[in-house]
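Researcher: Structure for this, please.
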Amino acid sequence: MKQWQCTICGYIHTGEEPPEKCPVCGADKSLFIEVTPQKNAAPPKSSSKPFQGASLYHRITDLMIQHHIHPISAHVPNGVAPAAFLFVFLSVIFRFESLSTAAFYNLVFVLVCLPVVMLAGFNEWHKKYRSSKTPLFVTKIIAAFVVATAALILVVWYAIDPGITTTPSAARIVFLLLHLVLLAAAGIAGFIGGKLVFKD
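Model: Predicted structure, token format:
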């Protein structure tokens, strides 16, 4: 039985023909190559120094991929956003201003970390996945921008109106829902990242 490898995400398909679309990243059939034993063999070790002759920018961006900076840094919004949502939810219900303050500082932390997350993600998409514009990558990019935009709005909103969660108004429900949107977008981006890593 033949094996075909997606040249975008590395997924391996077994069959006489490659699939119409990659089940992992959505790449077209034309982006699959047949895998042969020779192609699977480990490449010979190079005697030259790593990154020799590469510019400083390329050395740094290659190291970012080599040391998995994007998946590591992406754990910040994926881990902190649920805590921020929980704090805001409890603050809205029980009117504890200290919980909304805790959520605010959590989101400030997310906002500070997002430039690294997004830069590392763009670098990985550009270098590792060849800037592929399949629906999977487009969705992940949109989700990242939703997280960044929602976090910025929420941080500025709370800085202007610290009592937003404890004052009865429709605005506090919108504030809570915006936290939920941020959480959902971070979850979608994380799910897609996991799909690319684990190929399932």
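Researcher: Any notable elements?
Model: Helices lie at 37-40, 56-66, 69-73, 75-94, 97-127, 135-160, 170-198. Residues 56-198 form one domain.
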